[in-house]
Amino acid sequence: MTKDEEFVGENPTTPIVNEAEIDIAGLRAKYAAERDRRIRDDGNSQYRRAAGEFGYYAKDPYTPWKEREALTDFVEVLVIGGGFGGLVSAAKLRQAGVGSIRMLDEAGDFGGTWYWNRYPGIHCDIESYVYMPLLEEVGYVPKRRYAPGEEIRQHAMAIARKFDLYRDTAFQTRVTSLAWDEERNHWLVETDRGDAMHARHVITSSGTLTQPKLPGIEGLETFKGHTFHTSRWDYGYTGGSADGALEKLADKRVAVIGTGATGLQAIPHVAASAKQTFVFQRTPSSVDVRANRDTDPQWAASLKPGWQKERQDNFLRIVSGEEYGEDQIQDGWTTVPQLQRAMITGKIDDSISAEERERTEELLDFAKMNQIRDRVDSIVEDPATAELLKPWYRYMCKRPGFSDTYLQSFNRPNTTLVDTADFGGVSKVSETSIFVGEDEYEVDCIIFATGFEVGVSGVISGTMPVYGRGGVQLLHAWGQAGPQTLHGFYSHGYPNLFHLSSLQTANSANSVNFVHILQEQAEHVAAVIAAARQAGAEVIEPTLEEQQAWTASISELAVDNTAYLQACTPGYYNQEGKPSGKSNAFGPGPVAFHRLLANWRETELAAFAARFAQVNA
Ligand code: NDP
Fold first, then answer.
1. Do 274 and 254 form a contact (C-beta atoms < 8 A)?
2. Pocket test for ligand 1, best of 259, 450, 576 (most atoms within 8 A of CB)
């Protein structure tokens, strides 16, 4: 694929809604039927972890294993996770004058999800100027509107160099437990490398999109060909690079399972290189115009200090329904922000009734999805294949996709779309083949583009047990009621421990630009730690009352989008068709949450920290 093929198309447009042309009853019925034929009783348990017998799928193909001595020293702040959440936290702490910082990551270098995901075609699906954090601090302007993964990974490493974070980082290290030492007022951090480190403060920011997920397909372990997950791409087998040209596939029959955001980016390169490509699809993604392009050097030169924060705020205000003035981004995310209200909490237009709002949003949604389905017809030559590639659900049921090369791949004579919807996905794998119902497809290689255990940090899954005051385990303390925190960051009985996550904070996965959300969280946590240091407080934690008040307000303000998600085709947004009720994100949305945090820092943080200075004295 040439660069020219990638750089086609104008920006996606807001569709014109012509109510008379929309078959409301017909579309509702079609959406319900398409959902019903995909629902599986086993829901989330249809997947298996890439562990144990399948641990091979999660192994690091990029960095050779390095032996090292176990660490037993003391640091002021230990940060778990070398992705953007951890990096921005550490950068902000450095700016606040913290010298003693250790970062830990299971990976062999910085980058988080961008360390693991290096598949061909990998790009950020959000504009690079708002996605890549700390651009001004590092002095960098991305080369393209949507940056390739390698540029993003290099930027993560550049942040680490800029803030001198390599010197004390331990890679290839997984934390196995955190235990609060009440006598010495610090955390004991144990790892799978035999470390027993001590840290005054601990920040956790890990696990969002790093743990691969596999379908529980019968017979997978019997396959004798080659196989891997997109997040551990095997270039030794395929040849080529993230730019494509996978020359070693020229004599191979390759299966790709999965057509989500990753599949859309990787499949065009497999199709262009392999002798034969079979794409196993269960639910088609919506695929809108991408319109990637080089960064205009004149524009880059014209940027004034503070431009990135302004642009990030502009994006977030648009997608969360706040007032925004001019749309600086003008892409697929910002042209239909009303449709995102279903998933992204934010400001609701209350000048009209809820019924009227739902009616106009549904009409706009139908018009947008009709536009996306028409685009399939205009690109895909074979009518039967085009029909299978049309998504029949509301716009935000799945993460919207963008590509100017994906649909075109199905016009290649060597590329076959195999629909698995009526079978709940791929049915079976044998030594040589994939089966869908009775139909057999003989292949040399199976590539799983089947996604991740989304948002599951070790704290939540219990693989990184946390023992607070009195040795009480955090998950036990939270119990059936679920997470209880102040602002989503810290919990009573677990001093000096801060989580960067989606729990009881601004909605993360659904706020589109999660890195911006993490950046705001990191800034807040760094400010709290800095205030504690300044006040001479060794220990800092919310009171039970503060935690209860925040948890109650999260529950009171929670947006209930169960009805919307219930009507969606299954996927990770709706727990595979079984939505779990009210969201535990901050209902008024991310902009309101950031306002609340800024206000708290200004009016309450100093007193919060001073309170502990007295206790610790
Ligand atoms: P997804 O979970 O979105 O997609 C998994 C795919 O595998 C789906 O198409 C799913 O079908 C399919 N699948 C699962 N089980 C089976 C089965 N048994 N048989 C056949 N097909 C199956 O994972 P992705 O890696 O694509 O994306 C995950 C997230 O990563 C995205 O939502 C996005 O947040 C992020 N991402 C972001 C990018 C960016 O640019 N910022 C780029 C890529 C990913 P079905 O839909 O029917 O379940």
1. yes
2. 450
Give residue-wise pLDDT tens across range 85-132.
999 999 999 999 999 999 999 999 999 999 999 999 999 999 999 999
Same domain, 158 and 251: no
Nearest to 372, CA basis, from 481, 288, 443: 288
pLDDT at 461: 79
Q: 232 and 185 share a domain?
A: no
Say if 37 falls within a structural domain: yes
Looking at the structure of the chain, the number of domains it has is 2
Q: How far apart, in Å, do the first and last CA atoms of the chain sit? A: 66
Assess if residue 325 is contained within a domain.
Answer: no
196-252 tens-digit pLDDT: 999 999 999 987 777 899 999 999 999 999 999 999 999 999 999 999 999 999 999
The conformational region for residue 500 under phi > 0 = left, psi -120 to 50 = alpha, else beta, is beta
Ligand 1 atom nearest the C-alpha of 425 is: 19
Domain boundary among 448, 467, 498: 448
Task: List ligand 1's pocket residues with C-beta within 6 A.
Answer: 123-126, 209, 215, 217, 257-263, 280, 282-283, 399, 420, 425-426, 449-452, 570-572
> What domain range is 415 assigned to?
19-59+212-290+353-448
- This prediction's pTM: 0.95
Q: Convert the pLDDT of each residue in 459-487 to its tens digit.
A: 877 889 999 999 999 999 998 888 899 99
For residue 440, tell me if it sits in a domain. Answer: yes
- Can you tell me which atom of ligand 1 is nearest the CA of 261? 26
- 468 bridge partner residues: none
